[in-house]
Write a structure and sequence with these properties.
By secondary structure, the chain is α+β, with helices and mostly antiparallel strands. Helices cover about 25% and strands about 30% of the residues. The chain contains 6 helices and 12 strands. Strands 1-2-3-7-6-5-4 form a 7-stranded mixed sheet, with helices on both faces. The chain is globular. The N and C termini lie far apart (about 55 Å). About 40% of the residues are buried. Bound molecules: adenosine-5'-triphosphate and biotin (BTN). The site of biotin (BTN) has 21 residues, from helix 2, strand 3, strand 6 and strand 7.
Length: about 260
């Protein structure tokens, strides 16, 4: 397998020595988990041009078509301090991507709490963070991100549970996947020391999708747990929803889905 020279150059400029590149692989998260269980250092990278078994939450499929998307997993060996904020790593990836889209590509992105990046209310990126435990010790986490870049990256809409889009639909400039990869990893590293900061929470809150809008929270089994108006996030990263009786409810990231209530007209 030939590693593209542009990919190598990105790793070199970012001083990343530990990386694996695949033309095709089952799931970059799966490779990263196995590498983490072995010897992978902090910020080791797994990248694939195509995934045959990419995964989302709850064993759902994430489709990664060849030459059109980014499928990336970042191995993190969290510091003691970061271990208190593990649920902030998916938002960290979302914030990093939103920042790159805005600053480098003039694309306005929103973050669908807690782990999707949307453009004009359609999903352009999904993030899956998995924690690996050895007994009661945390070995590390794998932050997996899939980004739809070119048109051929998106699966047929009728196979999706949420509308999808891709970056190139939203800018005239030609998006180069490896340039985007470099920008994303840079932004991720720059924000990482600040996940405890108010700046991070503000940046995230300011880009929350459906803020002030009617939403509902669905459980894994499909039951609706809560409905109301999306208020924001609290300092723990939990979503805050105001129900019709004006009570504020907080929802922690986990086995729940956030959906907008479609206006009736
Ligand atoms: P939610 O909580 O809103 O349901 P999620 O972040 O948990 O979303 P998953 O359901 O785990 O997302 O993500 C997998 C889903 O994403 C699949 O069921 C499929 O509908 C959709 N999907 C798969 N591949 C793509 C893609 N390339 N682009 C956009 N959506 C995709
Ligand atoms: C979601 O939308 O819930 C998460 C999708 C995560 C997809 C990425 S692609 C790279 C990494 N490898 C995987 O198998 N999944 C993640």
């Amino acid at each position: 397998m030939m590693i593209p020279s542009d990919f190598r150059a990105v790793m070199h400029r970012l001083n990343i020595e530990d990386y694996q590149y695949f033309d095709s692989v089952g799931s970059t998260n799966q490779v990263a988990i196995e590498w983490l269980e072995d010897s992978a250092p902090d910020f080791a990278i797994v990248f694939a041009d195509h995934q045959s078994n990419g995964r989302g939450r709850f064993d759902r499929q994430w489709v990664t078509q060849p030459k059109s998307a980014i499928a990336l997993s970042i191995i993190i060996r969290p510091t003691h301090e970061e271990q208190q904020k593990l649920s902030f790593f998916s938002p960290l990836a979302a914030v990093a991507l939103a920042e790159v889209l805005e600053n480098s590509w003039q694309i306005t992105a929103e973050i669908k709490w807690p782990n999707d990046v949307l453009i004009q209310k359609k999903k352009t990126s999904g993030i899956l963070t998995e924690a690996i435990w050895k007994g009661d010790q945390l070995a590390g986490i794998v932050v997996g991100i899939g980004i739809n870049v070119l048109a051929s990256s998106i699966p047929p809409q009728d196979t999706l549970n949420f509308p999808a889009t891709y970056l190139q639909a939203h800018t005239q400039a030609n998006i180069d996947r490896f340039a985007l990869l470099e920008q994303f990893l840079t932004s991720f590293s720059q924000w990482r020391p600040f996940i405890h900061s108010e700046d991070f929470l503000n940046y995230w809150t300011n880009r929350l999708a459906f803020q002030g809008e009617k939403v509902y929270i669905k459980q894994k089994d499909g039951n609706i747990q809560l409905a109301g108006t999306l208020k924001g996030i609290n300092k723990h990263g939990d979503l805050e929803i105001v129900s019709d009786d004006n009570l504020v409810h907080s929802v922690s990231a986990g086995d729940v889905h956030l959906r907008p209530v479609e206006p009736e007209n």
